[in-house]
Structure formats: C-alpha cells, structure tokens
## 1
Amino acid sequence: MDTNFTRHFLALLARFLSGASVRWIDSQPDTCQRIYFANHTSHMDAVVIWSSLPRQVRALTRPVAAKDYWMGGPIRRHLANRVFNTILIDRTEIKVHQSPVDLMIREIGDIHSLIVFPEGSRSVTGEMGEFKSGLYYLCKKRPDLEMIPVHIDNMNRILPRGEVLPVPLLTCVSFGPPIWLETGEGKNHFLRRARNAVRQLKEL
Amino acid sequence: MGNDFWDDPRTIGLIGGVLLLVGAATVLVRLLKNRDESGLNTAMIEMFRRRIRAWWVLCTVLAAAFLFGQTVTVVLFGLISFWALREFITLTPTRPGDHRALFWVFFLLTPLQFVSVGLLNYKPDAPDLSTWQAMLRTLGSFEFFSIMIPVYGFLFVLARVAIAGDYKRFLERAAKIQAGLLICVYCLSHAPAILTLNSPEYLPNWGSKARFLFFFVLMVQLSDALQYAWARIPSKHPIVPTINPNKTWEGLLGGSLSTVLLGSALWWATPFHGRYWWMAGVMSLVISLMSFAGSITLSAIKRDRGVKDYGTLVEGHGGVLDRIDSICFAAPVFYHLTLWWLGAG
C-alpha cells in the first residue's frame, strides 16, 4: 500500500478514535525545526500528537519511541519504520558513545522535528513524573530548536498502563508557546521549567 | 435504495417545508451578520448561526438515512449514541477500576441495544425457520430492547466494577456509568424504535414510519428553539435559577403552547389522522415538557462538572450530547404513548 496514503489514513483514524480536539495556545503550527515534548501515559500518545499536527508539519515530524515496544511484532515494526518514521531508542543499553541524544540529533539533520516524552516511561497514575536529563542535553547541543510543550489530556483513561483494550473517551491535545534554554541556565532549573510548561497547559 | 420514502406527497411537504424554513433562517442570519449596526447581540447571532448549521446537518443526515432504510437509520442512531456516551463518560470522573466495565459498555452493550431495536421488526416469513432465526425472532417479540440495559446492563456494570476490586465510592461510580448508559443509549434508542411500530391502518409502510420519526425529531428541535425564543422576553421568572437562569416560566409556557399549536397544525404528517387529529397536539405537549426535563437535567450535570458544553467536536461548537439531550428524554415517552394509542385505537 502507498505509504503516504497509509500515513494520511492512519492519522485520520487516530483523530477519530481519540476524538482529539486540538488547541494551539499562544502558539502556531510551523514547519520549522521543533521539539514537541509531552506528558506520557499511554502507547498511543505519540500517534495522537503526530496525528493532531497539520499534514505538512506531520510529514517532517518524527516521534521518538521505545525500541522494545515498537519492535515487538511485524505490524508495530512496519508502522514504526515506514509509517510513523520513528526514531527508536534502545532503553536497555544506553551507552556513552551511543547516547540517544546523539542519535536523535544525527537523525533529524536540519529538516525534521521530534516528538519526545521526557519522563522516559509511562506514568501509572496520570500524574507527571520528573523529566529525564535528555531534553536538557538535546537543547544544549541544538539551542536553535524551538521547544514546544504539549499536554495530552485523558489518555491515561483511554488506555491506562497495563490495559490492552481502549475505552473511547475524548482527548484534548494542547500545544503551548515555545521555550528555549536560557544562557547559563542549569539542568535542574531548565527541566523544572519545561515540566511546568507542560503542566500549565492542563489548566488553560 | 428501493423504498417508498419519497412516494407520499406528505413526506415531501414536511421535509421540503422544513428545508425551506432552515434555508430562510440561513439567509436571515447572513443578512443580520452583514449589518453590524443592527444593534443585535453578535454573540446571539453567532449562537443562532451554529444552531442552524446543526439543523442542516441533522436534516440532511436523517433524510439520507431514511433513503437507505431501517438498518441504516438504526445504525445512525447507534453511532450518535456512541458519541454522546463518549462525551458523557469523558466528563464524568472514573477510576482505573472502571476501565473494563466501560470497555464492555461501549463495545458490547451499546451496539447490542441497537441490534435489539432492529430485531423488533425481524419477522422472517420463511416457512421453515432455522433455530437461530427463531431465537432472534423471539428476542424481538418480547422486546428484549426494553429490558436489556435496565436489567442486564445494570447488573453487569455493578458486578464488573466490583470484580475489578476497587471499592472506593463504589455505588457512586457504578451509578455514573449506569446513568450515562441509560440516558445516552437506552433512552435514545427509543427514537429509532418508532420505525419498528406496526399498524396496517396508521403506519402502513416505511414512508409513514420514517415521516413519523422525522416529525418527532422536528418537534423536539422546534420546542427547544421556541422555549429559548420565549425565554428572551423581558420579565423573567427562572424556574431553576441555580442550574440555568435562562430557562424561565415564560419560556416553558410560551414554548410549550406554540409547540402544541405547530404540532397540531402538522397533524396531516403524522399517523394521528381522522378523529385522532388532536393526538398530534397532545404528543407535542409531551415532547415539549420532556425536552425541558432533558435539557435541565443535563445542565445540572454540566454545572456540577463546571463546564458549559459537552465535548468540543468542532472548535467553539457544543457537543453531540448538547444537541440530543431533549431527544433522549422525549423518545421513551413518545414511543410508549404511540404504542399505547396503537393498541387502543
């Protein structure tokens, strides 16, 4: 099947199934290079964010996902490699010379954008965990990228951790205004600021 | 598509008349919008415009479904139910322990309810029925659809939530799921059930049944609009000020009276002809009162949850449930009264 068609079809399907309403709060969709960072509660998160981007933006945006999950079967593997064009991170062996951040920077070149989940793994309660430091190093190496906070509401009720069957509730995906790493800003300060940017979107 | 939906001039009269009215309203709103100095409230015009758009969608989708026949119409109402339930449960806080119960509510009970509605009319006339056909026919003949959710759905939700092992606020959580299921699925399913009523004299063919369902939906929408319009008159006596200060006694009385007048004037489109013409007015009154009950109930739930509309299907648009709350409440009474009248008349 034509990959472009599959891509478009799956995006529409994901939009319909998640019933997602999309909000851009003080922020506009753009094809410039960006890092979308979001809270993480379900395997569907990356697909839902990816599908709520406008078509031209979507074509340039690559989700970062866990290798152990997306290589778990032939269908998932096909979707990850050919359709969603994911960058897969091996969570089991993270080495110094093969760090995920270097891999991401190499893969996006100077055209692609990224969808990342800085918590590293899905939260159980729906409450956001602490951000891992990868986001900080990513910004440090590519300070020119716009960092867009994204909040996904309700996904932990649609497909909570440990469940296989989804309940078709309606989600809301909110994109916030971009943030950047300030000169001389420390790692912990930046990560806290980034986490708050995502959390604030829930209240708006 | 070989059905007799358009054969009757009364069907063309009713649906054509409604389309003309909605068309006229569309033009009127466009004119008002272009005249900014008219001094009218722009927010009100915007709301009216959205209402009209919803009416266009409702009319076209319903008429298209009628062309395809009973199965498509029942499936259409099933999809509306499914979406309304999504909105209802999304706004209702649930706990992880409710997840499995909710899955079955959405993917088993909701479709099954509309299959049962379809079965009401399942009368295979083959001389030698297979066991399966006979079983399905029996399910239809004892009106499985009217007990499936209130009895078996009710028990299922309780048991499934209990089995999940989370006992915190157990009754409250089970009741929320049951209320959603009853309002959005069970009550709404009585609207397409109108299509399965049988009477050689009053509802002889598909066209007359479809027109009757259209009349029902039309009267609910009219009564909503008329109650809203009458509530605009200055002297205000809100009925339930804590829930919705816009619903006034003037609105309810004026709206109901004008709905009854319009409904009686449309008697020719209903099965209530001959000496029963006044039944069209009685039905309109019942519809009007139940519509009021429906919207005030759903307003109470919204107020408790601190939101204005269910769902944001289209940005700035009320949800599906906001459009159909009155239909949900009016449908069972309308269905049962008609059934009763057909039995007596």
Note: Residues 87 and 103 of chain A are 8 Å apart (CA to CA).
## 2
Amino acid sequence: MKIVVCIKYSLDVSEIKVDSDSREIRLTGVPLKVGVIDQHVLEAAVKLAELYDGVVHAVTFGPVSAKESFRSALAMGVEDVTLIEDFTDGQGGPAVTAAVLDAAIKKIDGVDLVICGEVSDDGFTYQVPPRLAERLGFPQISFSRDINIEDGILFIHRELDDGSQTVEAPLPALISVTEETNTPRRPTLMEAMKAKQKPVHLWQVDEDLGLSKKDLMEKTGFEIVDTEGIVVNRKQHLLKGDNMEELANNLVDLLIQENVLEGGE
Amino acid sequence: MMATQISKIAVYSENLDMLRELLGKAHQTGAEEVAVIYVGESNPEAGEYGTWGANIVYSVISPKLTEFNPETYTDAITEVISRAKPDLILIGATKQGLELSPRIAERLDLSYASFCVDFELESKSQQVLAKCMIFSGIGVSTYRLHTKPAMLSVAGGVFDAVDLPGNEVILTPVSATIETPKLTIIEQKEKMIAGKRLEDAPVIIDIGQGFIEKDDVTMADELAALLCGQVSCSRPLSSERDWFPEWIGLSGAQLSPDLCFTIGTSGAIQHMIGIRGSKIIVSVNNDEYAGSHLQADYGVVTDLYEFLPSLIKVIKDRSIRIV
C-alpha cells in the first residue's frame, strides 16, 4: 500500500506577538517547524503502513529552508520527503497548495491513501484536504479517529459537531486526522541515525510538476489588502494571597464595582 | 450605477443557530436576495427561515441526501449555486461546513476565505472585501475576493440573528444530479445536546486541564448554578476526556457573556478567542505567568482547588448574584 502524507513547515503560532501600538503582527524570529498536527498525520500513516504492509512518502509545499527540518518525520518511518519549493513565499493560499499537492501525488502515482491534518498549525483555513480530495476525485473522510482497512476498504469512525459517524470508502481515498486521533511515537536513537540516510527531494512546480507559476497564481482567488493584529486590552489586574476567603471577597468586590455582580441585601 | 451592496447572498449551515446568524447578517447588509441553501430528504419549514431574514429557499430534496455525505452534498449545493448565481455564499464553520465547502469551492473555482468576521462590497472593484481571522485569531486580514460568487466560512457567534415576523419567503425546488457516492455511512449517532445554549448564558465558567478529575467539575457546576451560568471547557476536556459534548475556541463555540471565569486554562489563543468577546474575564491559574492572566481583567493567582470552594462560600454567604 502506498501512502502519501501531506505535511507543512509551519509557524509556531504561540510565539507570534502583536505590537500594541502599531498593531503590527511580528513574524520575525517566530520559529518554524513541521506542524504539531503533522506528528499525528505521520503517526497515523506509519501505523497503517506497519499494519498493512505499506510505504509512506511525505509531500510538502514550502520554503527550501525547510529542507533540514524533516529528520524527525523520516525517523518516525517515512521513506522519503518531497519538498516542493513554494515560489509564492506562502502567499498562494489553499487553492494553490491543493493544486501543487495534487500534481505531486499524481506524479508519485499509484497512491492508495492520502493523509492530511484537519487544519494546518498556522494557516487555519481547513481548506486544503477537501480541495485536494476533490481534485484527486477521491472520497474524503475528515476528522478520522479510528482507521481500519479491510480488503481495500477503509472503515473509519469520526466525530462531527452534533454526533459521530462510522463510514466506509474504497481506496484510493483521502483522510484527515485530528490531534485526538493518536499519540505520536518518539523515534529511537537508532531510527534517528537511520533517518540521516533517507532522502529529501527538492522539486520545482514548473520543472518537476509541469505546472505554470502564472496559472497557479491566478488560482489564489484573492489578494490581502490589509492585516492587523488584535490587541487585547484587558485590565490584567492580578490578585494574590494565601487567605482564600479574602481573595474571594476581593474578587467579588471588584466584580460588583464592574457592575456584573450585585450583593444580596 | 455602481452597486453599493451585495445583491445576492446565499447561506448554508446544517446548524440552525448558525444559519440564523448568517441570515441575520445577510439581511442586514440590505441584499436583495437572501437565500437559504437547503439539502435534505424532505422540504424544510421555509416560513421559519423567512422570520430569520431569508426571502428565498433553494431546496434540493432527494433520498440520497438523508445523511450528511460530503460527496452528495457537494453535488447538491454546487447545483444550487450554479442555478441561483449568488454573489456571495456564507458557510457556517461547523465540521460539516468545513469539510464540505472547500470541495464546493474547488469544483466551482471560487475565491474562498476562512473565518470571516465582517464583509462588505468594495464599490470601486465591485468585489467582496472580507475581514478574516488569521493565525487562529491573533490578527485579522482583509481579503479582496476575485470571483463571483465568492465564499466565506463564518464561526458561530460572529453575527447577530434578526427576528422578522411575517417576512415572506419563497420555496424554490432545485433538481440536481447526485452521483452515487464512494463514501458510505454505516452508522450515525447523535450526540447529547446541552440543555441551554452556551451563547445565551450571561455567565460562562470555562474550565481547562487544571481540573484533574471529572468529579471536580461539580465545583464549576455549583459556581455556574449560583450565577445563572453555564459550564463549558477547552478542547482537550471535550475531545480527549469526553467530559463535555462541545468546547470553546476557534474550532468550537465563540461566546460573549457578561462575565466569564476561565479556570485552569493555559490561555492558548485558539481557546481564548472563544471567550474574547466577554465583557469581563476572570482567570484562575496558579501560574502567575499563565497566558490566561494576560488576557483577563482579573487574574487570581492561586490553586483552583483551594480557591473555588472559598469563592462559592463567599457568593453564598453574601447572596451575590449576576446583575
């Protein structure tokens, strides 16, 4: 079974700060890494590969500077990583990413299962996996929890907002996983050593995938005309002390002053 | 003459509260046509949609649409969009909506921006300008969407519902070719639905991983009961521990109560965005440097297990209530 995982070299959103005066979002110095959600994608893929005699290939659309960041993905059990250079510098949007991943998966050929994260750590649009499934003509099963395969049929349990579904779909298919799907493994030292021998291929959208950069850019469908950070203007008044009743009384008094609580008499 | 407002807005959500909010916003923009896209096995109560702001319901009815299946629903909704030709489509950002809508956008080549908080027609370009949350709520970007129709996803609680008794609505059946899907639903289970809508509660007790045992939630329940509030939680308490059917945050409920206690939560942006609209936020966390204190009006730096029983006692002793 041939499995492709789609992963993303993502910004660590928890490190992004907003300048409280200019409202500028400060991205300089914010660390980038293979996403937290991608650890769950990799775990799901490697586990299925172990159970059903498969091979896992990783595909990613991102900057060339990400090249050294896939050691841990390779150590988890991925055969190789294909890094397709993002010529848009992250500005292409989900439609472009889906078109590029689609072309890469078709070039890899004979893919039985594509696994994505439900949403990337930084982009947070939820758009790429369904767009990719549509392009590939695959059934899609988002938010997969339990994943089993019998005779080329996927059986999946998934959680939606108002209930859960157990579904089946024939391979080839695309699934997305959530952070609740599994607990990612920690590679052993031996696996980490072996990973150094595994390749990270670098592809270009035009030379390797036969796509036109101009056509791709037109797929973006939008332009960003303005961006500003949200500044939280809360009082941030800290209450401390060892006497719990006194603390509670102080808090209640403050909330009465704020006119959200009122006293009994 | 240049239009100053979007002329035709279509709305889809299987969640009726969200549908109502989206219709309310569409109505308030002054759009000529405010349409509901309905997909199911039998016709809906269209009259109710009228009172929520719709003036037309496009309805695709088929036994193939009994259960939610992204493939059949994509076929049905793309057909409605091709027929109705809206300028803008608003999608409720539930899991179903988030699974379905990008597939529709890809098929129809629509410009699509996610997690919209406001939109308008740009008169010069005659294109939709949409303000959308980025980096899970750290900022807002304004997108100019190039296609017509354009598509936007919207989380719950962003827009206000309206009530228009007697507003007339036309039900328009749409026939669509629905391909036999590759995905088959074997079993569907409904989740237990919370008694009272969190959105309507004046006080929210928002609890996080600082709560160790499920039994400890009774402290939060007691506090909520004293203040006519509701208890809800951060994502792990719902999705991993299964203590609650839903959670607060960007991927869950977004609330704006008068008073919110966020207790034993870390202050991660994806979570805090769900309570950011609260009038007053009180955080309780024993870590002085917890992110939740930075995003609160009052931060109580103490162990929640010591503090909550005292707070409950003080509220009882002084007969404190919500204003």
Note: Residues 82 and 201 of chain A are 5 Å apart (CA to CA).
